[in-house]
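Practice problem: predict the structure.
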Amino acid sequence: MSKYIPGNQKHLTLEDCKYKECLSQSRAGINITRHELHQEDMVITPLIFQGQSPYQIITNHPELDISVRTLYSYLDKGILSARNIDLKRQVKFNPRKVHKTQIKDRSVFIRRMFSDFQALELDHFAEMDTVHSSQDSKRVILTFFLTREKLFLAFIMHRCTKGTVKLVFNKLERQLGIYDFLTLFNTILTDRGSEFGDPESLENGINGIMQSSIYYCDPMRSSQKGGIEQTHTMLRMILPKKTSFEYLTQWDLRTIVDHINSTPKRKPWWSNTV
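Answer:
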């Protein structure tokens, strides 16, 4: 059955009319044919069900020729098979519960506050944090995020102490060499966990010469190091909370890190504010 629409050059089927009526009821309207929408839906919906974000989909499929904002609009309007509820959890940097011991010596923060860090107006730096295992294991993962290179690094530590963090720093310096270490880790922003409570030790290299500067986020403000928090969200999709790291090897961790680094990431909000 077809229906003639005044002003059109052809007869439209009833199905076409219903489709156009549905689109016209959308607040903003969508300038796309039913066939084009079906083709895009066949690409987008399976990827969303696989856990990919709209940003990843648009980045990896330029043939779709739509923006991330347009894709979110499609999902909001319900014109794709996938719905908003099918999207993986969006990152929200809410104040997190404090599970690890905090630095008690307040003198550590003199000239190392977040306000001091902001005054530097750096366009690149390293962010540092730890990810904890379940309670049946003392092992932790020391993580870094290099903001210029958009590179995530992670290292298994057998316990969460100042000494084990220093051992990782020494290992990195030996592997990279002094010049590359200075280039990548010249300035480091981290939280106030007790494992980072000896900044002078971390700032001085194996030869005793100062090679890095350590700065601390404000209390309960994990969003101030948003790059590493975003990668932690991805890490926790693979290693959920309460997962034991007791038998996790550095080789296993390297595979996980490679996967995270190969995943396109949306430019974080802090990149224009710090």
